[in-house]
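[audit] Reproducing an earlier prediction to check determinism. Same input, same settings, fresh worker. If the tokens differ from the archived copy the diff job will pick it up downstream; this log only records the rerun itself.
[audit] input (617 residues):
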Amino acid sequence: MINAKYPGLPDATEIDINALKAKYRVERDKRMRGDGQNQYVERVDEVALTYEADPYTPDTPREPLDEDIDVAVLGGGWSGIMAGVQLRKRGFTNFRNIDHAGDFGGVWYWNRYPGLQCDNDAYCYLPMLEEMGFMPSKKFTDGREIREYAQSICRRFELYQNALFHTIVQSVRWDESIKRWRISTQQGDDIRARFVILANGLLNIPKLPGIPGIDKYQGKMFHTARFDYDYTGGSEEEPVLDQLADKRVALVGTGATAIQLTPFLGRYAKQFYLLQRTPSCVDSRRNTETDPEWVKTLQPGWQAERRANFHRGANESLLPGEMDLIRDIWTEVNCNLSAELEEQDWPELSMEEFMARYEEMDFRVMERLRHRVDEIVDDPATAQLLKPWYRYQCKRPTSNDEYYQTFNRPNVKLIDVSETQGVERLTESGFIAGGVEYEVDCIMFASGYEVTSDLERRWGIPVFEGRDGVSIYDHWRGGYKTLHGMMTSGFPNLFTCGLYQGSLNSTFTYNFEAQVEHMVHIMQAVLDRGAVAAEVTEEAQDAYVSHLRATEVDRTEWIRDCTPSYFNNEGKPDVDENGNEKYRFYLGELYGPGWDAFMQLLQDWRDAGDLAGLSLD
């Protein structure tokens, strides 16, 4: 067989899908709350939970800049790095990467907590491996290695020489009198850029749960995105958290970060409480060191082929006879389904029949993962609380070989807060859950980032105005309006990286690579024509949005059935007067025909050479 099914997968006859759907709805409903994203607060300055300070790199004072540049890249994470690389390759030299952090790396700069690793295949995730002559040390490589690799790309392409670090953007305004964007910063800069690439990422601003009493707690408190080794002991290189030996520690959150961090807190803390609203599904990690003999077999173009295989395995479907090269939690549903269809000599299935088979496999895989909990966790009551009751990918899939085992330690206690939709409140000395107060010395928050919050919070730029002083936040208030997900009318020479109205590749960094290639092509074409500005016409924008919505896959029912998370705006659609739902701001509007079709759409547009849909000034 090309692909074998995962061990422990139950047969279709062993599960009752209707009963599971009912169970999923019950578990979803008890976690629903009416405040959606408003359950999170932006900052709690009173308890020193500010995120403007950089604990890793000293902030060197400098004089404010007053200058004109060709391109301002707002961000120094993967999207900003890929933008800088593409600009260099196309001959641009007068540009700057501008970032709040003290160095390049984005989320990999800020996050340094124990156990931090890439949670999907690093051979796909890390860009430009062949060009850089680099190979990750293992399948799920460590955060430090990712950060150092990203910074090596920046050195190779000379991105450091013009980079502005420790720089917080306060306003971005289009100045019609000079046909440029004026960027003002907290450092007093006045930077006038012809083009702006907004590359500030999805995981750049930590968020805190708005727990009542969060400003009253007197113990130590921090977000995992600013992990405090001075308090815990150890270091990123040697995460021996020996200073927790006499400490009672609570961790709020059970997403991807908590899955990686929990084994360390359970190992070193005197008492460790994990506060869980919704459990993650956690498969075995099966992390392996990179085999040098395997590396020798790789042929030119291997990374592109692997990425394409990963995308089909994770979010589309493997081709008949195609081997799953990734074989982990991300591809299991399709891998199992391919193995089963191969056993049946690849029967012809209509789209409806295929989706029914896919749904069935989804339920079977999730049942396997629930069985895994019972196999590892000794206490039946704890095991029951740790089981995920929702569809695959309703909450980010994870893998770890020590997470469930941690709950067999006598100093570890799982506290489920699903009935109260979160922690009830904090006190001066701890937290209250189930009416019981637990005194703790330290509370850590693994509560994620402003991924699907309103754009003002997500971007962290207070003022962002295009032509005639129109705020982009108001312009997009009822839903995105773009051409190809990267440009919008009323905002000349502005390009946005991210998930707006384009397509989604399973290798997230590949999205950025493809986007910035398209953006820089447009910049160069504008300059070659002797123009100073390019703006999407409303007609082209409207036509693209209509085409997008006519072809998009309707996932409304699936999203609404999911447990509350950032995928569905915490279960609160927030429908506006036009019927647009807020969760469109994350994964709601993607190009229905898929990634390859979207790449062809962009290529055809570039090949035509007429910059269709753009008005040049």
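[audit] rerun output stored. Observation attached for the diff report: The radius of gyration is 24 Å.
[audit] end
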